[in-house]
Amino acid sequence: xxxxxxxxxxxxxxxxxxxxxxxxxxxxxxxxxxxxxxxxxxxxxxxxxxxxxxxxxxxxxxxxxxxxxxxxxxxxxxxxxxxxxxxxxxxxxxxxxxxxxxxxxxxxxxxxxxxxxxxxxxxxxxxxxxxxxxxxxxxxxxxxxxxxxxxxxxxxxxxxxxxxxxxxxxxxxxxxxxxxxxxxxxxxxxxxxxxxxxxxxxxxxxxxxxxxxxxxxxxxxxxxxxxxxxxxxxxxxxxxxxxxxxxxxxxxxxxxxxxxxxxxxxxxxxxxxxxxxxxxxxxxxxxxxxxxxxxxxxxxxxxxxxxxxxxxxxxxxxxxxxxxxxxxxxxxxxxxxxxxxxxxxxxxxxxxxxxxxxxxxxxxxxxxxxxxxxxxxxxxxxxxxxxxxxxxxxxxxxxxxxxxxxxxxxxxxxxxxxx
Length: 419
Ligand SMILES: Cc1ncc(COP(=O)(O)O)c(C=O)c1O
Hints:
Layout: H1 3-7, H2 12-24, H3 27-35, E1 42-46, E2 49-52, E3 57-60, H4 75-85, H5 98-109, E4 115-121, H6 124-139, E5 143-147, H7 165-169, E6 178-181, H8 186-193, E7 198-204, H9 219-230, E8 233-237, E9 261-264, E10 276-281, H10 287-290, H11 303-317, H12 319-342, E11 346-352, E12 355-360, H13 365-376, E13 378-379, E14 389-393, H14 400-418
Parallel strand pairs: 3-13, 5-6, 5-7, 7-8, 8-9
Antiparallel strand pairs: 1-2, 2-3, 4-10, 9-10, 11-12, 12-14
Helix pairs in contact: 2-3, 4-11, 5-11, 8-9, 12-14, 13-14
């Protein structure tokens, strides 16, 4: 079927966007979404709701991996950005900055243990790149280990870590230095670490793209002990799981460990200004004391991004937000349990706080449900590395009525897909 045939029936404005994007930017993506029955062009967005360009209203359960953790265009964050624009711009990365300094201090205060120094980047990928460079500098070793089901970004180094299909496509998998281990398997990890040539174990606390599988409760304490025993640094990638989504500010706090480095991004900028951050212990970040220009990025730590980040972190870390997440986690879980009991096709629920993944009894069950839910007015993304699962990411400021509405749509989608 030609593109014109696929987009026939859409409004002229939406057809124009489809054609432009197909012609000049993302031909394969346009075709893939059209073929999947998810012909979305996001138009208006507010809170946890999106409006497709054809007018369809959707609940947002993708929230772009946590980017819209606080919802789209959170009013206080929009005001903060506008207020920042009265006097600020991206700033000059060579010099100290008031807002950058304040956000670094706030991150140090909101992370456990000796996590102290922050280096800001324009994205999560680049923060992970810097975790790799830092670990190599500190340990004098080169090898990096990650889960074979992890995603840590798409830049040079971060793209080579973890699941490597994309890195292989571009000839940048660097297999000798970037190794993988199975998730939740301490024996396999020890077999690699005991060679004592691994600089860093980069961990995606719950591998999002695989559908947030949960580790054994003592897995991460064993990981911490193994890293200490064999001189490997431990970095937790909290880009998707951080910012209170797990019920604690950082998901690794659920497992009682403190890493040597932590990466955050996405929701830190409230979906309004791109910002990523690498937080390091004083010891690991000591290179910052001797080399002021070891990381140079024009947009890393932009002042507008830091200004928005201050407000986003303040709202995210508030006790009332923590309480809301605890309430939603129980409320949504009860509703999901009820549906799972009634629909055998819906066979698994993974949960930590408001991070949910729903498992279905078909190898592409998550994809089928994404399409069925889209038709019902809810956008949730399947897990790309295991398409039997659907990521079901509830925003931390949502309420019970929003959950009830979503549960109704989920039931209607289940009826359709199970039929
Ligand atoms: C766990 C994780 N780490 C890192 C990244 C990369 O972040 P960014 O897209 O900001 O480069 C992502 C992006 O989806 C992610 O999910």
